[in-house]
């Protein structure tokens, strides 16, 4: 595919939430036409590799095609969670920025 490599934040936005030692990350493309491309490139394995250094053990991706969105559930990533971690971000709110730093290749005609 002839395209441009760019960070996800150029083509999508994300929000984060937490429950215990688990982080939920939404991923929503600004342009719904990018949904299939993100489904192909932002895999569970890539997201797990991105968070492995924080102790993540599993990532589950939930596809929401009618919303053109994804929800990633990252297990064991919050160093015990808000009550058990000395981490400054025990809630995991900033982890959406880490996800948005992933790179994807976007076709030139869909690049911002």
From TrEMBL:
UniProt name for this protein: AtuA-like ferredoxin-fold domain-containing protein
Organism superkingdom: Bacteria
Family matches, as Pfam families: AtuA_ferredoxin
Domain AtuA-like ferredoxin-fold: from-to ranges: 6-104
